[in-house]
Design brief:
With 584 residues, the protein is α+β, with helices and mostly antiparallel strands. The protein contains 13 helices and 18 strands. It has helices at residues 120-124, 136-161, 210-214, 226-233, 238-249, 258-261, 276-283, 340-344, 349-356, 384-388, 411-419, 455-462, 526-529; strands at residues 2-10, 16-24, 27-31, 38-39, 50-54, 60-64, 70-72, 75-77, 79-82, 88-92, 95-101, 107-113, 309-312, 322-325, 395-399, 402-405, 533-534, 543-544. The strands form five sheets. A seven-stranded mixed sheet has the order 2-1-12-11-10-7-8, with no helix packed on it. A five-stranded mixed sheet has the order 4-3-5-6-9, with no helix packed on it. A hairpin with a 5-residue loop joins strand 5 (50-54) and strand 6. It is elongated, with a radius of gyration of 46 Å. It holds the Pfam family Cytochrom_c3_2.
Length: 584
């Protein structure tokens, strides 16, 4: 059987609210407990007061469950049979349940609540929150005051009252409850400041200022002089200028401010680099505004980027460097004689010698001599003792069980050692070692220090083109050799991460296996880079590349002001072999 429960309530203004619900059951329970089918919220009613069940021919049997009676049509009863077609009114405390029958055969139970002179509201007050709480209006005002106090008054008051208002990450958090003002997590670079908002937000309601950033990043340099930055950007449009005026009213600095590029509270992780458009807004046609600039226009690596340039020694023996185009024809005078192709061959005498030495494989590879720097951007200088001497031995004498070697890198000491050689005949210290190919007796690189020779002859031979030093060094003509320069960084305004390219063979970009001269500048050209790298918006690119992939807005060797660095940092300029000239 289906009971249709219709509850009628009234608002404070007298508007009627009707709610209907159906109960599919042959028995209907009525009482104060919430487990009943009809809940009567009146202390005068038992937890389970009345049970209504269906009988023969649709009759309703109403019975009291406990010892309390009920009132039906004004008569107190404990059990009664009711015909719903005729109707009836069951009274329980302040509630009246009227029974009737709907046209579709459902039994209708209408629940209403009446006002009585003895105080209906007082009787039901114990069943709602209004008896224990202030009014809704009062609660709303209390909530507003609590929110203002917790999230506005207390943080602002504690910020204004704090003792130290200097920027910096080392201060103690003196602003209370300011974490609720955070719009998101800080990046990994600033994660330690998560609970120290005033380290950056020194003044309330004022944007982070440049001097605040520089209190920690004091060694960082400007990209260029501020006036040149503004000139290179060009005039603003009307809309952009209006937005910057609005931002200025809230304490935000101009377009050259740190916070223009470095936005925080964007979530944990690495801080996102500036978009390509940020760079191209100045560099796309910068020469039209900065007519004295030496930088080429650029706005997309795949379609509009100048040819790569490297910083090299163009004059033999000169420690100054100049920038040259990497067009495949660039040369460098580094003071060495070194044929890469011969050393990387898999079939010649070098390969056969490497195969006999435990430190190498069947043939030499680039990593046998070139070791990366800690930052993986460049390579450490090749050292004679660690890389070359395993094949190019400088041993010239043996005394007992001790071998005597020439002092590499010190020409004066080498001369002294050769002049002090014992003139008495001796057995060659290299006896039993058969050098293959060009290293055999009579070959270009053969050197026998075991044969008796006049001292001046040994010195002259060592420092000549055919001598042991002349194998790798260029004689200076005054009894010494040309200075040698090795660099870990060839780019002035860019960086290159070799670790990100370690899946490629070295010869993919550096054609060392085809080079017969140390003057060949084995640097990749722009065209070779574009075989994999294209612009940031290139859909078909293997590696979409933004400006920030190779360029940094704040290179570590930039000084403040000007147009950027004039030369790399002194401690990375060169590994130099400098002879003491004119000494005997």
């Amino acid at each position: 059987m289906t009971f249709l429960i219709r509850t009628i309530d009234y608002t404070a203004t007298g508007r009627e609210i009707v709610r209907d619900r159906s109960v599919e059951s042959d028995r209907l329970s009525i009482g104060r407990a919430t487990t009943n089918d009809v809940v009567v919220a009146d202390l005068a009613v038992e937890q389970h007061h009345v049970s209504v069940s269906t009988g023969d021919r649709g009759q309703l049997s109403i019975e009291a469950i406990g010892n309390r009676d009920f009132t039906l049509d004004g008569h107190r009863q404990t059990s009664v049979t009711l015909d719903p077609a005729r109707g009836g009114a069951l009274t329980l405390g302040l509630y009246t349940l009227t029974f009737g029958r709907e046209p579709d055969g459902k039994t209708l139970v209408t629940v209403t609540q009446e006002e009585r002179e003895f105080g209906n509201r007082d009787a039901i007050r114990g069943f709602d929150l209004a008896s224990a709480m202030p009014s809704k209006r009062a609660a709303a005002w209390i909530g507003v005051l609590v929110i203002l106090g917790a999230f506005l008054v207390v943080p602002i008051w504690s910020s204004l009252a704090r003792e130290d208002k200097q920027a910096g990450a080392d201060g103690i958090d003196q602003v209370a409850w300011d974490a609720s003002w955070s719009t998101g997590k800080l990046s990994l670079a600033h994660h330690s400041l998560e609970n120290n908002c005033e380290a950056c937000h020194v003044e309330p309601f004022v944007s982070v200022r440049d001097e605040t950033c520089l209190s920690c990043h004091e060694d960082i340099g400007d990209h260029a002089d501020r006036s040149r930055l503004a000139t290179s950007r060009g005039p603003m449009g009307t809309g952009e200028a209006l937005l910057w005026q609005v931002a200025a009213t809230f304490g935000k600095e101009g377009p050259e401010a740190c916070t223009t590029c470095h936005t925080e509270h964007e979530g944990a992780g690495r801080m996102e680099p500036a978009a390509e458009q940020f760079c191209s807004s100045c560099h796309e046609d910068m020469d039209a505004r900065l007519t004295d600039t030496a930088l080429g226009n650029a706005h997309d690596f795949g379609t509009a980027h100048p040819e790569l340039q490297a910083l090299v020694h163009t004059a033999l023996g000169d420690d100054g460097r100049s920038r040259v185009m990497l067009d495949g024809k660039a040369r460098e005078q580094n003071g060495l004689r070194f044929p890469h192709a011969m050393h990387l061959s898999a079939t010649n005498g070098v390969a056969r010698m490497a195969d006999t030495l435990p430190a190498y494989g069947e043939a030499l590879v680039c990593s046998d001599c070139h070791l990366p720097t800690d930052d993986r951007n460049g390579f450490l200088p090749v050292e004679m003792g660690g890389s070359c001497e395993s094949c190019h031995s400088l041993v010239y004498d043996k005394v007992g069980s001790t071998f005597r070697s020439l002092r590499h890198g010190d020409v004066a000491q080498m001369r002294a050692d050769l002049m002090a050689m014992d003139r008495a005949p001796r057995r060659p210290v290299t006896q039993g070692l058969r050098r293959p190919g060009e290293f055999k007796r009579g070959g270009r690189y053969f050197q026998d220090f075991g044969r008796p020779a006049r001292n001046y002859t040994a010195v002259a031979q060592a420092l000549s083109d055919q001598g042991v030093c002349g194998e790798c060094h260029i004689p200076s003509g005054d009894g010494g050799v040309m200075p040698v320069f090795q660099h870990s960084d060839y780019f002035l305004n860019a960086r290159f991460d070799h670790e990100a390219h370690e899946q490629e063979d070295c010869t993919t970009c550096h054609t060392a296996d085809q080079s017969d001269s140390a003057t060949d500048l084995l640097m990749p050209t722009l065209a070779s880079c574009r075989e994999c790298h294209s612009g940031a918006e290139a859909v078909q690119a293997e590696v979409p590349s933004t400006c920030a992939m190779c360029h940094s807005y704040h290179p570590p060797n930039f000084g403040r002001g000007g147009d950027g660095p004039q030369s790399p940092a002194p401690d990375r300029v060169a590994h130099v072999l400098r002879p003491q000239r004119g000494t005997e």
